[in-house]
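HUMAN:
Could you generate one sequence with tokenized structure?
ASSISTANT:
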Amino acid sequence: MGVGWIAAIIIGGLAGWLAGILIGLRFGVFMNIVIGIIGALLANAIFDSANIHVASGWLGYLVQGFVGSCILLFVAKLVRN
């Protein structure tokens, strides 16, 4: 069973916010949610292609969102500089 849309927004926002703190870039609540959700999709594709399995449900989505958000924010930080 997948994560519902409301849960995806909350978890994606949390993942984006945590990644923003780690990387040192913060774009606001809305962008944190967008970055978290896109990051989760990006990390899901990377993990699937590398045959890496993380926890399922909200914990897996949080881990994937955090990893993907860190990747996106790292690239954004490189482009910004």
